[in-house]
Task: structure prediction
Amino acid sequence: MAENRILLEPGNFYHIYNHSNGKDNLFENNENFRYFLNKYFHFVGSIVNTYSYCLMPNHFHFLILVKDKQEVIKAFRIKKPKANQINENTLLSWIIQLFSNFFNGYAKAFNKINNRKGSLFNDSFKRKKVEGKDYLVKLIHYIHYNPVHHNFVKSIEDWKFSSYKPIINNNDDRLSRNEVIELFDNLDNFIFYHQQRPDDLYLL
Result:
């Protein structure tokens, strides 16, 4: 199945990512980065747990866990109190729609501020289902390593727009920090693991 057609099902992990259209940037300044991240949590924070993210000038990565079905239904009823009976297709379509609304909203704001026209993102957003603790651990590491891999910085610690430092400093309660640390057994192992170079950079 195409990576932009996979459904986001409750209770499953997904790698969410996309790239800018052509050679354009998604973010031109620090405020763009902050605005994008705040809009992300505003639109989808009620239906996903965020395990890691990294925003770079022309692309981004998120590792998310879609919340369980009852929590998603609860969020749906809050957003759409007049909706009739909810079926499986309605719920799954709504999850995708929330992400699409987020990306479309950011693109419109970005285009307006920068006097720009046309598509900002390269097609609809990509997503891959993620299974297994080992893969989750590697993917978190790879996402945080992205700015080093693309030569934006020399060290993971130097990049401001990823979840690495907020996880270490415990200063963003929007992240599933405790669950991430548990995947690495403890904070010391989390830090040690991230000091290594990933073996499988093709995942980036």
Q: What stands out?
A: The helical segments are 30-44, 69-79, 88-113, 133-149, 164-169, 177-183, 187-194. The domain at 13-203 is CATH 3.30.70.1290 (Alpha-Beta Plaits). Strands lie at 13-19, 48-56, 59-66, 126-130.
